[in-house]
Amino acid sequence: MLENLDDESAARTEADVMVLTRRQDITGRGEWLMNIDFIAVAHRDHPLAALDGPLEDSALAPWPLVRIADQGGDSQAPRDAWTFSTIDAAIDAVMYQVGFGWLPEERIRPHLDQGVLKRLPLSHGARRATPLHLIVKRDLAPIDEQVATLLALFRTP
Fold first, then answer.
1. Total-model pTM
2. Does domain 35-130 have CATH number 3.40.190.290?
């Protein structure tokens, strides 16, 4: 099941295997899987895309920040933000010029290559990385063949 959980919910979950953005010793054995790279972008027709860089926070302030639920790591000052529960919905919001956002580079690569989305030349923080951790419940033993296969698939690059 795919689900966004905050730290407290993840600690109480009954799931045997989880992929989380934060490693949590309280829920089980954890290991780093990979980093997801996010880049700051706006639609090519959005007013932010027309500005010359480097852009400061004050240039971003008038525009809503498009966020992915539980994306963490947002060091921006409080502002209007639209939070979406899926990556696809957040990408669509930026594509429809609702605002700007840090989106997963791999998922928006075609839009970048076609010039539909533009990287924002920020003075700092134009690129962010979010680690993904594989967490296996401590008391999950013995691990059956299906769970072992799932874990092997997660660990395969």
1. 0.76
2. yes
